[in-house]
Amino acid sequence: MKSTGTIDARYEALTKSLDGPTVQRLSDAVSRAAMRFAFASGAPGAQAVRLSKSIALDLARVEANRPKPSAETAFAALREIVTRPPSIR
Questions:
Q1: Which residues of the chain fall below pLDDT 70?
Q2: Residue 16 CA to chain centroid, in angstroms?
Q3: pTM, whole model, 2 decimals?
Q4: What is the number of structural domains in the chain?
């Protein structure tokens, strides 16, 4: 598993390159996904937030096929995780 500092640093770098409204949308999506992860798995809140950030960064990179993650792709991936019915997760 990636170190916490690496995930937080990568997420911070992503948010610094975005405008305010996009950062807010991404932050909201990470928070919602983290709440779902924490509820579903019983993981502590901080661990669920790191997991959400990591998933956002990794999915954005894979889906966009770029060396740097795209905020819009990360937002879309997290939105899908939050809205997908539990039976297909």
A1: 1-5, 59-71, 73, 82, 84-89
A2: 15
A3: 0.56
A4: 1
